[in-house]
Amino acid sequence: MAAEPLIRLRGVTKTFGSGAGAFQALRGVDLDIEAGEFVAVMGPSGSGKSTMMNILGCLDTPTSGEYLFQGFHVERLDGDERALLRRRYLGFVFQGFNLLARTSALENVELPLLYRGEPPRARREAALAALAQVGLAEWWDHTPAELSGGQQQRVAIARAIVTMPRVLFADEPTGNLDTARSIEIMELLRGFNARGITILMVTHEAEMAAYARSVVHIRDGVVASVERRDP
Amino acid sequence: MSALGPTLALAFREIRRHLLRSFLTVLGIVIGVAAVVTMVTLGNGATAAVQEQISGLGANLLQVRPGQGFGRGGGGPAPPDFQMDDVEAIRTQVAGVVAVVPVAQSSGTVVRNAANWSTTITGTTAEYFTAQQWTLATGRVFTPAEEQAGKAVCVIGSTVQQNLFRTEDPLGERFRIRDVSCEVIGTLVTRGQGTFGQSQDDVVLMPIKTVQRRFTGNRNLRIITVQVDPAYDTVTVTASIQALLRERRNISGARQDDFNIFDTAQISQTLQGTTRILTALLGAVAAVSLLVGGIGIMNIMLVSVTERTREIGIRLAIGAVGREVLQQFLVEAIVLSCLGGLVGLALAFVASWALAPVLNVPFMFDPRINVIAFLFSALIGVVFGYFPARRAAALNPIEALRHE
Question: Which of A179, B10, B32, B231 could cross-link with B290 by S-S, CB 3.0 to 4.6 Å?
């Protein structure tokens, strides 16, 4: 693992628009992330951290530069190939939860398994197990509208980890929650990290970043500093 | 997800989630399918009804009458009636005739005890019954001996029977026509209205000689009915009879016929063609409403794609490929329109079943048009669902997730 990191960005740039109105969000990012890490990405708004996360999450492509995920050149993949990569290796947790409305917690958690073509029985069992891991086993038949914000975020985490992804991307996962709920969420994330899931989390709260083992600071479209804390 | 099962389940769940909207969406399809199928079903019934009424005139029959058209013709002297030797001539000189039946007609009041009834008296031969496809309810037809001797025997239609005999058995009974006492030897089954609305059951049939001697007082024939061999074309036989009669009646060159030949088969074909065209026309008008229904589906599916942009974003982020999102929306549109089609078929079944008796046509369930209409509604789902589905599949996951 030491030779080949899980994620390697080399000279990644991203420009939005063209001509006079062009805006360069990333100006040459170099970053290595080893498997099993828990990384917090911090930076002021407009620093390019969301853009970098979108590229890291294979939702977007760099304008130039290289992105190697497990040695694969992600920048060379097309939209559907990146979708298959997300399906196979990645999980997402968003600030706004992004659960399907009017759909039960169980069905929400089953969704990634559905796209993986798992049979219904296996889907159900795995989804119930994932809900149990986030402490929502009894809430499986509730729709997002019937759940609190903290519960919704826990359903979202269950949906992200039900496939046992290599990397979990969390974009401000506690942004919409109070401190007590935020701590619950961070404890959950730390637990899954301990079980081998690499976690990349965007946050602007130092308290939450304290859960991570390293913090990457982004400023003006480049990596300003990488701060490692050994536990 | 390439398996159809989960996609179908998703589609049904989405439809159930918006039950009212789904119903309104497919209302156009429902009405369209119902209209097309009802129109065609009733149209087929009408065609069958016309066919049925035409066949009441007799199969492969030619009716030869003096005069042009249905009347006796315009000015000038009335054209002469036919004679028995015309009948003989057609029988012996025209190929492809099975029977040539002379008909003499008179009218009169029939009287029995206190009951009396004004009716048509038709003098003819026993062949008339087979040619006109009359079935006897009771009794028998005239014997050759009775025809030869001009006996006063008769077969009566159900209208005459009811008016003279009520519920009594008329067989062997006698009644009076003018001053002739006549014995009932048979009764006809009820036939109802004819093609032109006249009652076919208001008849008294007697041997032709009896009618000529006792009532008309001459040997003239009003109609010669010719039954054509089914192996022969009625058009050729008509032409032969026309040529023969022109010769016999000394009509030469460009002079018009003073008789007419009424071909029931041809009339039947013409009328059927007309009802078929009308059916197709009504069906086509109804098909336009199907098209409008399809546009309704596309409209709602487009709205639905916009409304569910965030959902699509979530699915894409989780790892759905474009094809799967396309498939989801396409299947949803197809399921919707197929459900609409099924409801439309059910509605059409009920509507045509209820309307058929009102319009006085038989209810004829036509599986073919039902299948066609259903497949067409599925096709509408594919065609009008594809565009919104492609739009959904082409969404960028980041922008879709940001969509409020």
Answer: B32
A204 vs chain B: nearest CA distance in angstroms?
19
Q: What is the dihedral of CA A48, A52, A57, A63, to 10 degrees?
A: 110
pLDDT tens readout for residues A96-154: 899 998 889 999 999 999 888 888 899 999 999 999 999 999 999 999 999 999 999 99
Domain residue extents for chain A: 7-228
Same domain, B284 and B210: no
Here the ipTM equals: 0.92
Hey, are the CB atoms on B2 and A100 less than 8 Å from each other?
A: no
Q: DSSP secondary-structure letter at A146? A: G
Q: What pLDDT does residue A168 have?
A: 96
Task: Quickly name the fold that domain A7-228 has.
Answer: Rossmann fold (3.40.50)
Q: What is the pLDDT of residues A191-226, one digit of tens each?
A: 999 999 999 999 989 999 999 999 999 999 999 999
The answer to whether B333 and B384 have CB atoms below 8 angstroms apart is yes
Work out the minimum CA distance from B25 to partner chain A, whole angstroms: 20
Domain that holds residue B366: 4-53+276-402
Partners of A10 in beta bridges: A66
**CB spacing of B319 vs A112 below 8 angstroms:** yes
At B120 the three-state DSSP class reads strand
Half-sphere exposure of B278 (CA within 13 A, CB side): 14
Q: Are residues B349 and B285 in the same domain?
A: yes
Report if residue B210 sits inside a domain.
Answer: yes
Q: Is residue B73 scored above 60 in pLDDT?
A: no
B273 in reach of chain A (CB within 8 A) = no
